[in-house]
Amino acid sequence: MADTIIRFGIIGAADIARKVSRAIALAPNATLSAIGSRSLEKASKFASDNGFSPHVKIYGSYEAVLDDPEIDAVYVPLPTSLHLRWAVLAAEKKKHLLLEKPVALNVAEFDKILEACEANGVQFMDGTMWMHNPRTAKMKEFLFDADKFGQLKAVNSVFSFAADADFLANDIRVKPDLDGLGALGDAGWYCIRSILFAANYELPKRVIALPNPVLNELGVILSCGCSLLWEDGKVATFHCSFLSNLTMDVTAIGTNGTLHLNDFIIPYVEKEAYFSTCSKSGFTELVTGWQPLPSKHIVPTDLPQEAHMVREFSHLVKEIKLNGAKPEEKWPTITRKTQLVLDAVKASLDGGFVPVELGH
């Protein structure tokens, strides 16, 4: 039997909504039914610019999308400062919630969003697309192979891109009233998630922000870094920045193996992604090379990773809608842990790079 088609509404016409609207179109079990913006003109222009079907309803307010009884789920790409209000309202209107990251300004806000989702029986998922790439599952197999990888000892993650002058002056991610977490909330979210992924979502005991963050004149983070420490001796570091060349690297080092990834957030090409591994590495006899050499693993995919995300989310919504299933708790749990670490990093930065113990 063919999948039930889940009907999406989008509230907000952010650039990222262009990518997710395409993903909704590509996912076999989803369709875009409505777009809402702060004005009918803005919503109409967004629909026209992105070639939406004439069947997509166009609304001049966010409320109108949430009030549409035909909408099953909403994608919310609004500025982070608006997430609490609109995510809670979406849940109260019984709309399943795909929420752009960072999901909230702090974990207290996110807990209110989660409470609304739980009270209304709606599925929550954040918009961290790389989690749904088939490559990610293959990497997990390696990371949790006791023989090939062993025990995790260290992770290093970097996400940077060189923003232009217009971005640094006008983008919502550099405005304290819209996205006050800056590069930490935008790029740092991905770094933190990659570290937690490698650590099987075990929270660190403490975090210590690295000195010399770069802030703009309004106090928003443009570049920063952090060290994370676990009780069992695992360590991790990350660097996130709007001021350096495009880099998306993760290195995870175990007692027996190492995983390298150079495009972890957005693969170099849509239809395949790769990572490299090495196990039980050593030198040749004369120390002139490595043996064995690293292995390159190529993972093809029929859909871009954002369409895999929409498909997975839509499948969970269908199970709730048709079969009375309970919302999947895996995704909000992972989201909350990411937000907890992000909050601790921010507290360390604000406190002058002091160690911050993780709350739960």
TrEMBL record:
Domain GFO/IDH/MocA-like oxidoreductase, first and last residues per copy: 143-259
InterPro entries membership: Gfo/Idh/MocA-like_OxRdtase_N (IPR000683), GFO_IDH_MocA-like_dom (IPR055170), NAD(P)-bd_dom_sf (IPR036291)
Signal peptide: none
UniProt-listed Gene3D superfamilies: Dihydrodipicolinate Reductase, domain 2 (3.30.360.10), NAD(P)-binding Rossmann-like Domain (3.40.50.720)
Annotated ranges, domain Gfo/Idh/MocA-like oxidoreductase N-terminal: 6-125
GO molecular function annotations of the record: nucleotide binding
Recorded superkingdom: Eukaryota
Family stated for the protein in its record: Belongs to the Gfo/Idh/MocA family.
Name the UniProt record assigns to this protein: Oxidoreductase
Gene source species: Cucumis melo var. makuwa (Oriental melon)
